[in-house]
Amino acid sequence: MVSISLCMIVKNEKDVIGRCLASVKDLVDEINIVDTGSTDNTKEIVNQFTDRIFDFEWIHHFAAARNFSFQQATKEYILWLDADDVLLKEDQEKLKALKDSLTSDIDAVSMNYHLSFDHEGNVISLLRRNRLVKREKQFQWIGAVHEYLEVGGKLLDSDVAVSHLPLSHDHTRNINIYKRLVESGEPLSPRDTFYYANELFDHGQFDDAIFYYETFLTSKLGWIEDNIRACYKLADCYSNLNDPENNLSSILRSFEYDIPRAEACCRLGFYFMQQSKNYEAIFWYEQALVIKQKTNVPFQNKPFTTWLPHLQLCVLFDRLQQFELANTHNELARTFLPNDEKILHNKAYFDRILNKGNEKS
Known about the structure:
There is one protein chain. This protein has helices at 17-24, 42-46, 62-71, 89-101, 173-184, 190-202, 206-219, 224-240, 244-253, 262-274, 278-290, 307-319, 323-336, 341-360, and strands at residues 4-10, 30-35, 53-55, 77-80, 85-86, 108-117, 123-134, 140-142, 148-150, 155-164, 299-301. With 361 residues, the chain is an alpha/beta fold. Among the domains are: 4-164, Spore Coat Polysaccharide Biosynthesis Protein SpsA, Chain A; 275-294 and 301-361, Alpha Horseshoe (Serine Threonine Protein Phosphatase 5, Tetratricopeptide repeat). The strands form two sheets. Strands 1, 2, 3, 4, 5, 6, 7, 10 and 11 form a nine-stranded mixed beta sheet that branches. Strands 8-9 form a two-stranded antiparallel sheet. α7 runs antiparallel to α8 and α11 packs antiparallel against α12 (307-319). The longest helix has 20 residues, at 341-360. 37% of the residues are buried.
């Protein structure tokens, strides 16, 4: 069995840090907490789990803080989490099994990161991140914000998942770090350019976001997954600016990087749906359902391959008065969201229409 050091950076996390540490305390051999300036009782809560608490002066650079946290580790492997992350019971068991079976030739282990959930508790979006790394390899974090852990060697994709369960979020922190970098004249890497564009988009600064998405894409230095997501984000920018022509061209631009994905198909379906081009919209939503999802893709948005295309097909076939087909798709959507109000409303609507039709016959 390998030994594991948990390494975390925290600041004012009193509402979530206890929940996080309680979910992992029995699975790791050491807990190292680096505090970057808490003014609440975060440290007092952490002290119930470990006395290995270290201070690090915040210099507006996440990678620097995370690298310092890794330097405190003394065990064979390092596991990192954020304070608002949790290992659910099933994943605690999976991590325990991984710890028992992991061989020392593995340099890094990736885990799914469950980012958001619907009201049924189903995972909506997820990505893969390298979570457990061999300490002796001295892998480094890179990036002032939206930092990433650069790894190499023999890698393992595990079935363990970390669940992101935030209670609150500082919406200005990341964009302010990026603006400080830009104002200082420091050039942004392609990755930082993409994430800065995302922050601008999230703050409704769509024209500036378009500029940075275009800068990122024209550099031709981006990761293919970020390139595709940048195209989708550009489409969203133009949608918010009421520019359907550039919205469409941005969706189609994603085809330069890969075959059409379910998300692109749904976006095209919605584009035609808004213009009442029902048959064209139906074609694209049906494509979203038949496209096979690649295994272990880095980013997944579940609605685009599950309930969303079915629900939109329900609306489209209803427009065409093909009520049985519409009802079929509504029922398929209901298998994913059995308690959704809209879907249940549709069910009652189709029950009335189809029963009337049966009475007449």
